Structure formats: C-alpha cells, structure tokens
Amino acid sequence: MLPEKGAGAKPATPPKAAAPAVPAKPTGPVPGAWDSAMVARFKRQYGSGIEALTYLGQNYMVVDRSLIPNLLLLLRDQEKFEYCVDITAVHYPKRERQFDVVWILYSFEKNERVRVKTMIGENESLPSSVEIWPTCNWLEREVFDMFGIRFEGHPDLKRILLPEGWRGHPLRKDYGIIQQDKEWVQINLGIESGQ
Amino acid sequence: MTETVKSLSHLELGERDETFLGSNELIINMGPQHPATHGVLRVILKLDGEKVLGTECVIGYLHRGVEKIAENRTYSMFNPYVDRMDYVAAVSNGLGYCEAVEKLLNIQAPPRANHIRVILTELNRIASHQLWLGTHALDIGAITPLFYTFRDREEILKVFEKYCGARLTTHAFRIGGCLYETYEGFERDVKKFCDFVQPKIDEYEELLTTNRIWVERTKGVGVISAADCKALGVTGPVLRASGVKWDIRKAQPYANYSEFDFEIPTRGAGDTYDRYMVRMAEMRQSLRIIRQAVERIPEGPIMAKVPKVIKPPVGEIYHSIEAPKGELGYFIVSDGSTQPYRVRVRPPSFVNLQALDSMVRGQLVADVIAVIGTLDIVLGEVDR
C-alpha cells in the first residue's frame, strides 16, 4: 500500500482529477429552452423581453428590466407564485450591466419553483416589490446593504446587517475580503482595525 | 397589488388609548444583551403603557460575512463555515450545502450515505427543538423544562461526538456523501436513544401542555394567519401551526426522505401554543423517521465518485431543505473555477424574524418575549 501511495499515487492523481474536469467543460449541462404554457403566455404578452431557460431541472426566466414590477405581479396573481422565497444579486464587474438580480419564487398550489433574473447597471435602480410580497422588505434591504442596488418605492431602504454609517457594499467583487470602513471602525470602536 | 398589503392592514392600530396621563408613549430598547432575545438581537419597542404599538429589529451584531467568505474559499473549504450559521442545527446546514453542490456537480450521494444523513439530520432536528423548548419555556417562566431538555439533548450530542468527534459544529457531511463510516454500535446507540427519548417527550408535554400558566401565556399570543405567513415568507413550524401543510421533505423531497413514512403535523390557530404543539409532534415524527432509517441502512459506499478538485461547470443552482426552523436555501453560482462565484444563503430565521412586528403589535410587552421564543430564531443565522 505505502509504496503505491508514495510513488504511484502522485503521478496517478493529476490525470484522475483532470479526467472528470476536462470533459466536464464541453459536456457539462447547458441551459436548455424551457417551454411551458406559462412561458408561452408571457411571451405572447411581452415578446422578446423574456428568455425562458432550464438548467439541471430548475426553471428560470431572464427578463428585461422594464418588465420587472408587472411580470412579478402577474406571477403572483395569475400564476399563483404567492411565496417569494428570496431576492439576491450577483455582481459581474466586467459586464456592461454589472448586476444580476434574482427573485426565487414558489407556488404552493403548483408545488413549483421559478427564478426570475434581470440585469441592471451600476447606477440603475429597480422598482421595489414590497407591495407584491411584504417579505421583500428585509430581503431588498439586504441586497441594498450588500450590493448598493436601490429599490424605488421601498418604504424604508436602509442598511440591515451592516451599521448605518458604513461605507461600501461588501458583496461587490471589487470589495476586498479584508477591506473595511477604517474610519467607521476608528470612530465607533476606538481601535485601529477590526481585523 | 394592494391586496396582500391589505391583509396585513389589521396591524395598523387605530387611535391610541388615551389614559388619564394623556400621552404616555414610550420608546424602549430590548437587547442586544438580553437573555430572552436568544443572542444579540436588539428590538426597539414603541409602547403605550404595556401595549406594543410597533417594533423595529436591529440585527447584524453577529454578521461575519459568510457569503463573502464563501467567494474566497474552495467548495470544500467553505463546508465547515455553514455549520456556524444555525449553530444549534449544524447538521441541517451541512446537508443543505452539500446537496446543493452535489446538484451543481450533477452527482448523487450513495444510499448508505443518505441514510446516515437522514438519521443525523433528524437527530439534530430533535436537538434543535429541545433547545428551543427549554429556552422558550424558560423565557415564559417555566424553569424545569430547560433541565429536562438539556439533559436529553446531551444524548444526541454524544452520538454526534462518537460519530464525528464534534458535538455542535459537526461538519458531519462532505460533498458527495459522508466522510466517516458509522462507528461500532451506531445503530444500537440511535435505537437506544429513540427508546429513551420517546417517554421524555411525553414528560415535557406533561409539564406544559395542560399547565394553566403555560396555556394562559401562549394561547392567542402572537397569532399569525396562513395568508400573512405566505406573504411574509414565513416557513417551518410557524407556517404549519397556521394550518398550511407544507414541508419540503414531502413537497420536494431531498436526500431519501421519500422512502420514509411520516406525517406533517399541522394546527390551525397560528398562536404560540399551536407552534409549541406542532414542534412537539415534529419531534415524534422525527423519531419515526430515525427508527425506519436505522432499521434499513443499506451496505455500500458512503461517498460518491467526486473529483479531487471540485470544479462545477458554469451554472447556478438553488437548493433548499427543511431545516428545523424553516426553508433553508442555498443559491450557488459557479463560474467553472474551484471557488464559488457567489453563495447566497436563504436563512429561515432571518425571514421569520421579519414577522415579529406583525405578531406583537397590539399585544403586551411580556408577549414580545414569548413571540421571540416561539419564532425559534438563531442569531448566527439571522446575521450570517
């Protein structure tokens, strides 16, 4: 066993690790088109603003930013997605429109999940969906706190996890892992660094 | 558009009661250092005498930036971090994360691993509910249940310790299955625990279920309707106590929950008492699952074929499980590298805590304590 591990395993592992990784890239699952009656209805109404995809059995729609409050409202009222599971965002600093904002919805009636994704730029804002799902209140506040994305019409859009006077939005990719608001730390904690 | 908002509008109280002192509105601060807030939760209360006019939660005292850390660690390195979110149900956190990454990799844990996972997760659900019951009863003024539940929870922690060496932040599972084989006598220990704890749950119930003080303090307190639960995204036992028969283990089964026979306990009134009853029934259902699982652990590998370097293909996935507190979800975006591009944790405690305001408005200050207890929040998960 031992000599095998010492001598044989080392050259043996890299091809082993590489073997699943290399074919994984070309053969890795690719998002396919998602066809359903609901998507057809939306497409009829909104045309090209919607791209419906499915990946690993999970359905999602990439929609134009302009459709946002209306499409979500339709999803709640017509399609019975009465439970907004989560709102989150992803930052892609190299893209022209830097942020993906994602709504994860669930329908109790259909036992079905769907994700709605839209892209917005650095200085763009989104209409708030607090009036559609009250749960969005804190969820939108967290997205604002972490990414600096503003939701117009939110009743009380302020930071939620970080302190009020903090500068910077930590989940942006240009925010370093040990970066902090030094001034805030010095004034409020009386120490040089919170690290 | 306004319909859901209207359903919450009963929360808007009318005119405030005028007393002989005229205005006696009072703003007080509860926490962040207060034993009854189960951690560092600060609630600002607006009161009229003893009546709550409104609340505001101030959270984030325990914020460690778990999601940011995830982006700077490999998939396997981030695994132990998830245990530190809901630290009283670390096994559930680990299960959710591992399954999410497995989904992204398009692999499945072998049946033996799934059985071990289910047994440990359900044991953890009981431990979490026991801790909740002890502290919740203590908040309300019953001291005895705390000693009973902690004494019995110890037996679960012993099983965890024997299995993986840790009691709370267990890091029991790995991406692709389990790292550890069950120890000699694992089945015996688990069965022994089931036989031991079954009468103990009856014992807790004897202490509380018909206890007049308990009933007075919990019945009709912190009522939330099923519609409000859905609108506010509240899940878990709180949702089920409001009469919605929804449990992800049944609705969208993960691991191998579909192989087991169990029920989803529900109640209708949506008050603190019903949430207590639901959780008590859930402990019994968990025992039922454990007994079935431990009887038929199959032989076989405990680890799927996982590449040495975990590099999921480009894509994103959302996977959620029924944690003891509600829906625990992971949204993971992979850019094809060894580190996740983004990990979002959908914490049940955070979302459930948002309902606190609507549940305590118009009630008494003392009920705020009862409602915080009944929501079963863990601040490590709220703040992440």
Task: Describe the protein in words.
The complex is a heterodimer of chains A (195) and B (384). With 195 residues, chain A is of the alpha/beta class. Helices cover 34% and strands 24% of the residues of chain A. Chain A contains 5 helices and 8 strands; from the N terminus they run αβαββαββββαβα. Chain A is elongated, with a radius of gyration of 22 Å. Chain A starts with a helix and ends in a 6-residue tail after the last helix. Mean pLDDT of chain A is 81; it is low at 1-26. Chain B has a 3-stranded antiparallel beta sheet. The two termini of chain B are 32 Å apart. Helix content of chain B is 48%, strand content 12%. Chain B has helices at residues 3-7, 66-71, 75-83, 90-105, 111-140, 144-164, 186-208, 212-218, 226-231, 237-241, 248-251, 272-295, 348-353, 356-360, 365-375, 379-383; strands spanning 25-30, 42-48, 51-58, 173-174, 177-178, 315-323, 326-334, 342-346. Residues 1-11 of chain B have low confidence and may be disordered. Chain B has 384 residues and is an alpha+beta fold. Chain B folds into 2 domains: 1-61, no CATH class; 66-383, Cytochrome-c3 Hydrogenase, chain B (Orthogonal Bundle). At the A-B interface, helix 1, strand 4 and helix 4 of A face helix 2, strand 6, strand 7 and strand 8 of B.
Features:
heterodimer, A: 195 residues, 6-stranded mixed β-sheet, two-stranded parallel sheet, 5 helices, 24% strand, B: 384 residues, alpha+beta, Cytochrome-c3 Hydrogenase, chain B, 3-stranded antiparallel β-sheet, 16 helices
At a glance:
Chain A is an alpha/beta fold and 195 residues long.
Binned, the helix content of chain A reads 25-40%
Question: What distance separates the N and C termini of chain A?
Answer: 45 Å
Radius of gyration of chain A over alpha carbons?
Answer: 22 Å
Binned strand content of chain A: 15-25%
CATH H level, superfamily name of the largest domain in chain B: Cytochrome-c3 Hydrogenase, chain B
| Number of helices in the DSSP assignment of chain A | 5
Low-confidence stretches of chain A: 1-26
Instruction: Note the overall shape of chain B.
Output: globular
- Reading side by side through the largest sheet of chain B, how are the strands ordered? 1-2-3
Number of strands of chain B: 8
Order of helices and strands of chain A: HEHEEHEEEEHEH
Number of helices of chain B: 16
Shape of chain A: elongated
Distance between the termini of chain B: 32 Å
How confident is the prediction overall: mean pLDDT of chain B?
A: 87
CATH topology label of the largest domain in chain B: Cytochrome-c3 Hydrogenase, chain B
Which stretches of chain B of 5+ consecutive residues score pLDDT under 50?
Answer: 1-11
Largest sheet of chain A: 6 strands, mixed
* Mean pLDDT reading of chain A: 81
* Helical content of chain B (DSSP H or I, runs of 4+): 40-55%
Q: Give the biggest beta sheet of chain B.
A: 3 strands, antiparallel
